[in-house]
């Protein structure tokens, strides 16, 4: 969903840019700048770190023991192409986007705070679903004791923050910018 929303914003930004090109409307320019800022923020805080996290975590766990993250039973309902659409294609598309479009990252403090807020919010959502249904969204969590779950959730939050920093460094490297 994050990737779909992000790339939808990218298309909207590109279309708006094309439609306002050569137009002297200051209001349209102001709105376009807001849209570009939103696109850049979503890329920096959500699309890149979450996208890279999903691909690396999913396939690492899948290779170790697929039943922990994507039980064979799901093959009956979710075709392989859709699984790859959710867990593979995210990485090349987000890397292509980073290479083709310069993104202005927020301040490191604001960016990391936003990434942490998302990570904690998502973890709380996963825990809420378990609380209401009695089923863990990710089968891996069934095998972890409460203490290990806390350590796992903390590690996940740290990893996603590292991916935010990797995205910032990669963006600056590709576009040769210095903060």
Secondary structure elements and pairings:
Layout: H1 2-20, H2 26-65, H3 80-87, H4 90-100, H5 108-133, H6 146-175
Helix pairs in contact: 1-2, 2-4, 2-5, 2-6, 5-6
Walkthrough of the structure:
There is one protein chain. The protein is 75% helix and 0% strand. It has helices at 2-20, 26-65, 80-87, 90-100, 108-133, 146-175. By secondary structure, it is an all-alpha fold. The chain has one domain (1-177). It is found in: Endomembrane system. Keywords: Membrane, Transmembrane, Transmembrane helix.
Short descriptors:
179 residues; mainly alpha; 6 helices; 75% helix; elongated
Provide a compact summary of the structure.
With 179 residues, this protein is mostly helical.
Task: Kindly estimate the percentage of residues that lie in beta strands according to DSSP.
Answer: under 5%
Largest sheet: none
Order of helices and strands: HHHHHH
Identify low-pLDDT runs. none
Given helix and strand content, the structural type is mainly alpha
The average pLDDT score comes to 93
Rg, alpha carbons: 19 Å
Strand tally = 0
Number of self-contained structural domains: 1
Which word captures the global form? elongated
Q: Helical segment tally?
A: 6
Distance between the termini: 31 Å
Helical coverage, percent range = over 70%
Pfam families: Far-17a_AIG1
Membrane topology: Multi-pass membrane protein
Main location: membrane
Transmembrane segments: 41-64, 76-98, 110-138, 150-170
